[in-house]
Amino acid sequence: MSVLEKMSSDEVIALENKYGAHNYHPLPVVLNRGEGVYVWDVDGKKYYDFLSAYSAVNQGHCHPKIIGAMMDQAQTLTLTSRAFYNDKLGVYEEYVTKYFGFDKVLPMNTGAEAVETALKLCRKWAYEKKGIPENEAQIIVCDGNFHGRTTTIISFSNDENARRNFGPYTAGFIKIPYDDIDALEKVITSSKNIAGFLVEPIQGEAGVYVPAEDYLAKAKALCEANNVLFIADEVQTGIARTGSLLAVCGNCSCENQCEQQASYVTPDILILGKAISGGAYPVSAVLANDTIMNVIKPGQHGSTFGGNPVAAAVAMAALDVVSEEHLSQNARHLGKIFRAELAKYIETSNIATLVRGKGLLNAVVINDTEESDTAWNICMALRDNGLLAKPTHGNIIRFAPPLVMNEEQLLDCVSIIIETLKQFEK
Length: 426
Ligand SMILES: *Cc1c(COP(=O)(O)O)cnc(C)c1O
Known about the structure:
The protein is α/β, with parallel strands linked by helices. It contains 14 helices and 15 strands. Strand 11 and strand 12 (about 360-365) form a beta hairpin. Helix 3 runs antiparallel to helix 11 (about 310-325). The N and C termini lie far apart (about 45 Å). The model has no long low-confidence stretch (mean pLDDT about 95). Pyridoxal-5'-phosphate binds next to helix 5.
């Protein structure tokens, strides 16, 4: 069949099944267009997108400013590699470091690459600045973490599905329970060889677990007291998703009046990805101050595509949109409404037990076991009712729409979600 003919959903799905590796289990809906908070399937049916490509599309689908910047740059210069300078990278580096309040940035492409970069940077700092003996550095990580899919990263995952038969694993990581400050204190003070603490300010993939209000500040204080780098993976939580520019909002140039200033911290190493490009292009970044970043010298780390001029132009436009359209404030405002409305319904529901989250990163816990397919079935019904969401586990559904949503749209979505949940009441 000619690729120019319009294919049905079933045909597209069959092609993926036959010719693509089966490394995902998508909800059966085939999309071919997106604009703002909406996506359309191949039959022209319109949906609210409540996944936002795992929070990459915070600025909404095909934002004209971001796509415009991408098209302009794509017609001018796409890739030079870092063997030569290009006229966009330096401009972007100044922009992004001032935007987030760090001395330097190391540009990469995907989230996992940025996490890898942060881990390498942390180890190098540990050997060259902290004085840890060669190959002895340990990095503390949390149970239930999700930091990406490389061999090193899955080495410290507890998701057996992500780990099994991918060994041998990378050594040098110590796992502790998330949101447990005593556990962190015990491990961080137990050895002189602790180099860093890698943490998600909210665990997204695990099911949107929001730690205690003072957890990150206390963790940062413990890191400082023990000369350990606090490494924040904000690939999912960053770029306005949780109602502030960063979930750890520190010395950034963020115009928000963060609600609990005291509980926010400045990471030593900040990892960004996903929405730093508004979902238009793979862009990730590692930010740190000079004392840390300057341990990396020419030839010691890199990426052919990292810091390319299209990525630079796209990221600047995407971050402009975040501040121009006040996406943090909007996420915070709509998130409160979302949780309040869902909580009201949950009081009398026997299918949903809990809503939790921050800003527009929220989850609803379904009254069934982790192994059940209830959350999947609810997502299928949501799809039929015009809203796309995906379970993070058998009994948890994440709700993360683009941050350009307005209040009327959000209330429309809340009623779709509640009416759909009602179909599953026992
Ligand atoms: C998505 C994600 C990553 C990995 O990003 P990729 O671009 O998929 O490699 C890393 N950390 C967190 C917290 C994420 O949500």
